[in-house]
Amino acid sequence: MAGRGKLIAVMGDEDTVTGFLLGGIGELDKHRRPNFLVVGEGNEPGRDRGGLSVVGFLAREDVGMILISQALAEQIRPAVAAHARALPAVLEIPSKDHPYDPARDSVLRRARGLFAPDELR
């Protein structure tokens, strides 16, 4: 990876992932593993499919950021909450069928813990 940047991985429903792929983030690593995962009916979000899971993306050296739909993050909350390293950053995003809820966002909850409540106003 010398001289190259890190990849953005995306996990979510078909429409969310397709939008990011149309935006140009789709890549394959040297082992031909993609940096995206469509999770929907019929496949489980926590099951590792050859390195294609949140745990698999967290272990990859070439991934610098993981975008995960908030609805999917709720289904695998223990794995998302257990991640404490700075890289890869795990950011929860809204999806078409599930609007963003800041109260459930793990990154926002951690950020709130750094400040006193009166400093957030």
TrEMBL record:
**A Pfam family reported for this protein in Swiss-Prot or TrEMBL:** ATP-synt_F
Q: Which GO terms describe its molecular function?
A: proton-transporting ATPase activity, rotational mechanism
- UniProtKB keywords: Hydrogen ion transport, Ion transport, Transport
Q: Name one GO cellular component term.
A: proton-transporting V-type ATPase, V1 domain
Q: Which domain of life is it from?
A: Eukaryota
InterPro entries hit by this protein: ATPase_V1-cplx_f_g_su (IPR008218), ATPase_V1-cplx_fsu_euk (IPR005772), ATPase_V1_fsu_sf (IPR036906)
Function of this protein? Subunit of the V1 complex of vacuolar(H+)-ATPase (V-ATPase), a multisubunit enzyme composed of a peripheral complex (V1) that hydrolyzes ATP and a membrane integral complex (V0) that translocates protons. V-ATPase is responsible for acidifying and maintaining the pH of intracellular compartments.
Q: Which family does it belong to?
A: Belongs to the V-ATPase F subunit family.
Task: Quote the PANTHER family the UniProt record gives.
Answer: V-TYPE PROTON ATPASE SUBUNIT F, VACUOLAR ATP SYNTHASE SUBUNIT F
Q: How does it assemble?
A: V-ATPase is a heteromultimeric enzyme made up of two complexes: the ATP-hydrolytic V1 complex and the proton translocation V0 complex.
How is this protein named in the record?
A: V-type proton ATPase subunit F
Species name: Hirundo rustica rustica
- Please spell out the taxonomic lineage of the organism that makes this protein: Eukaryota, Metazoa, Chordata, Craniata, Vertebrata
